[in-house]
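2024-03-11 09:14:02 INFO worker-7 job=invfold-0412 stage=load source=structure_tokens
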């Protein structure tokens, strides 16, 4: 009896299973519930680290370029200091407190550098090289009188008196208050036989700066050569000066 009941139940289970298998499949509805992503703290951290590395690389590159530029500038400055004597500021002739030029500050600085380089060469006796630098300074700023004055002294030392007179004429047309240019111009006129003009211009130089009666000061502070001092001797003594 027990076996019969078990058999019947087993048969019923088999029938039920068979019927479920033969039913047409229904359209499954797949509901997928994705797990909520964890906060992307890890990825945000990587981004922050990447940005920090990139920033550090850019800053490092900029510092490297700046150091290279500074090193190059230092080498150029050292080279210029080896070429130009350290007493450059004292080489200026007839320095005034008024800047007589119409050029921009950058052009004026470039002109001053070239002019001072020429003066350093001039005081060293290299008149040919000094002339080149004075002409470069004039080309940089034709409105600045000082390179004309220095070039005039340079040309006079080289025996080109007429060219020197022309340069002094230009220098004084740009700035009439230059005692140094007036004295140099007077000396050249005197040696050219233009006696009265030479006297008048030297008197003007003395009225602008009485120290042009002192040959020692002229040699030490204005770098007049022995030749220029000798040629201007009578002009100084006519004013009752020594030397």
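2024-03-11 09:14:09 INFO worker-7 stage=emit residues=243
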């Amino acid at each position: 009896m027990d076996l019969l009941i078990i058999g019947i139940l087993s048969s019923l289970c088999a029938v039920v299973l068979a019927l479920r298998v033969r039913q047409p499949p229904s359209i499954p509805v797949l509901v997928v519930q994705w797990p909520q992503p964890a906060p992307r703290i890890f990825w945000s951290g990587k981004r922050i680290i990447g940005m920090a590395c990139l920033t550090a690389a850019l800053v490092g590159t900029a510092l490297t370029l700046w150091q290279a530029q500074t090193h190059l500038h230092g080498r150029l400055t050292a080279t210029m200091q080896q070429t130009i004597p350290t007493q450059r500021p004292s080489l200026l002739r007839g320095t005034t407190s008024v800047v007589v030029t119409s050029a921009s500050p950058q052009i004026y600085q470039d002109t001053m550098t070239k002019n001072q380089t020429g003066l350093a060469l001039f005081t060293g006796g290299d008149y040919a090289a000094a002339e080149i630098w004075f002409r470069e300074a004039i080309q940089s700023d034709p409105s600045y009188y000082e390179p004309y004055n220095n070039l005039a002294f340079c040309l006079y030392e080289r025996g080109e008196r007429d060219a020197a007179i022309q340069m002094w004429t230009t220098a004084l047309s740009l700035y009439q208050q230059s005692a140094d240019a007036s004295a140099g111009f007077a000396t050249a006129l005197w040696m050219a036989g233009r006696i009265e003009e030479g006297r008048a211009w030297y008197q003007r130089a003395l009225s602008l700066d009485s120290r042009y009666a002192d040959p020692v000061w002229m040699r030490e502070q204005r770098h007049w050569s022995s030749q220029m001092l000798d040629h201007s001797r009578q002009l100084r003594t006519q004013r009752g000066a020594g030397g």
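2024-03-11 09:14:09 INFO worker-7 stage=report msg="The chain has eleven helices and no strands."
2024-03-11 09:14:10 INFO worker-7 job finished
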